[in-house]
């Protein structure tokens, strides 16, 4: 899942003229330059000729979004069709509001990603995800001149697999493009990326100088793809030795890096503010969140050291990807009509790592102030860990359910989440135990 890439033609400025986050030359969807992958694209276009649906499957950072969009665009151009990019939430809402035939345009190639959640799978969205895939598959089977490219993360596809089979949806081999395997082309591109990283460095004794493809391919990379590993190493070469340690892995190495930055540099003390909102809007300061971390607006005045980690997008393109927009944060809902640009992390994986770093330092504040999408996607109670989540202890789970969710309707989909489910079970057990105790006392 990668945030929709928008080619931005103009630069928004603060009232005093200078944007805190000026455009960088390599502003792009997937950390730096797009990974051109003509081999995959050609295969995908070829596969799409004889069928109406194509699944592009790969780990986070293995070019799912980039390849899917490229296939969509190239196929449309070659066959005189229009093309559109969607987040699945947007499609899910359209299916609820329109009759199925009107959800997609005729003679159009549609790329859909974001399945399961913006950063990681949200268990509350599973039903919606399955239901939407089912309806898209039905469209692909009944309407001739509509084509669909479905970009989906390997882990999310694996989690959904049994349920999809129950719905008689099979992602067949001839309908799937798998991006996780190492091809000759991919090896070559990775070697070029490593060379670029080394050439950009003037430190003679830097760890990057001895970096090679075998090292990068040999490290414990999960849950992200090799391209992204190399791009992340390029953000700060001092991280390279930690990335190469088998027992650490990219998620821990990157979140450790954010932790160190928060300790070391004042500018990074605003990181939890960014994490809570999920974006940074320089035209709107939110004191109710900043106060929770003792952050002032003045602390956001310098950007040089964080510039390489962020990019700008139009907020109206971010909002449709937030599943809880309409039930939890009316302030975000208002932004849907807004055209101004905001900053987000350059890659969703960077947000995940920043979330982990901030949760470790400020667990209660994050549970209280952070956008609910991130909490539901990235926090689990004990025993539910997956590759991208962080564990909350019983006290934190209790705090979240008692303090954060107290004003939300109790009959909504939130009850599907293990954080809330376990808390409810624990509460029932406690009441039962208390009942038995009071009987004994009597
Ligand atoms: Zn270096």
What does this structure look like?
- The chain is an alpha/beta fold and 442 residues long.
- Among the domains are: 38-178, Rossmann fold; 184-260, no CATH class.
- Helices cover 47% and strands 10% of the residues.
- It is built from 20 helices and nine strands.
- It has helices spanning 38-49, 64-78, 88-97, 126-142, 154-166, 184-199, 213-218, 226-235, 240-244, 249-264, 271-277, 287-290, 315-318, 325-328, 330-334, 348-361, 363-369, 372-378, 394-404, 418-441, and strands spanning 53-58, 82-87, 108-113, 146-153, 176-178, 310-314, 341-345, 379-380, 390-391.
- The strands form three sheets. It has a five-stranded parallel beta sheet with strand order 2-3-4-1-5, with helices on both faces. Strands 6-7 form a two-stranded antiparallel ribbon.
- Helix 3 (88-97) links the parallel strand 2 and strand 3 (108-113).
- Helix 3 (88-97) crosses helix 4 and helix 6 packs parallel to helix 8 (226-235).
- The longest helix is centred in the last third of the chain and has 24 residues, at 418-441.
- The radius of gyration is 23 Å and the shape is globular.
- The chain starts with 37 loop residues before the first helix and ends with a helix.
- The structure holds zinc ion.
- Zinc ion is lined by residues 201, 203, 206, 208, 237.
């Amino acid at each position: 899942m990668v945030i929709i890439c928008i080619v931005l033609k103009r630069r928004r400025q603060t009232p005093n003229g200078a944007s805190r986050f000026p455009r960088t030359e390599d502003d792009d969807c997937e950390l730096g330059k797009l990974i051109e992958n003509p081999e995959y694209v050609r295969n995908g276009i070829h596969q799409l000729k004889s069928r109406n649906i194509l699944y592009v499957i790969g780990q986070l950072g293995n070019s799912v979004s980039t390849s899917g969009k490229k296939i969509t665009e190239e196929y449309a151009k070659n066959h005189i069709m229009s093309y559109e990019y969607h987040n699945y939430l947007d499609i899910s809402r359209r299916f609820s509001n329109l009759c199925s035939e009107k959800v997609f345009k005729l003679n159009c190639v549609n790329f859909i990603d974001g399945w399961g959640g913006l950063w990681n799978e949200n268990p509350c969205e599973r039903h919606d995800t399955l239901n939407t895939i089912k309806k898209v598959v039905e469209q692909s089977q009944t309407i001739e001149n509509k084509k669909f490219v479905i970009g989906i993360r390997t882990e999310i596809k694996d989690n959904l697999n049994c349920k999809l089979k129950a719905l008689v949806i099979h992602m067949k081999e001839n309908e799937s493009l798998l991006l996780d395997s190492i091809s000759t082309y991919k090896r070559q591109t990775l070697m070029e990326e490593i060379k670029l990283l080394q050439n950009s460095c003037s430190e003679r004794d830097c760890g990057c100088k001895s970096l090679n493809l075998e090292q990068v391919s040999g490290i414990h990379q999960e849950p992200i793809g090799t391209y992204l590993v190399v791009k992340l190493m390029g953000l700060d070469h001092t991280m390279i030795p930690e990335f190469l340690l088998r027992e650490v892995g990219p998620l821990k190495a990157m979140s450790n890096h954010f932790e160190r930055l928060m300790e070391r540099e004042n500018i990074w003390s605003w990181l939890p503010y960014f994490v809570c909102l999920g974006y940074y809007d320089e035209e709107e300061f939110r004191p109710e969140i900043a106060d929770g971390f003792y952050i002032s607006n003045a602390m956001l005045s310098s950007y040089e050291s964080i510039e390489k980690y962020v990019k700008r997008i139009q907020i109206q393109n971010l909002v449709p990807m937030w599943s809880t927009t309409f039930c939890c944060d009316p302030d975000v809902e208002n932004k849907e009509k807004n055209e101004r640009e905001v900053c987000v992390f350059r890659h969703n994986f960077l947000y995940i790592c920043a979330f982990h770093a901030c949760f470790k330092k400020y667990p209660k504040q994050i549970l209280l102030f952070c956008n609910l999408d991130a909490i539901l996607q990235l926090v689990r109670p004990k025993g539910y860990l997956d590759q991208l989540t962080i564990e909350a202890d019983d006290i934190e789970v209790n705090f979240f359910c008692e303090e954060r969710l107290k004003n939300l309707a109790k009959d909504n989909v939130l009850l599907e989440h293990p954080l809330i489910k376990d808390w409810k079970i624990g509460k029932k057990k406690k009441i039962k135990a208390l009942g038995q105790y009071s009987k004994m006392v009597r």
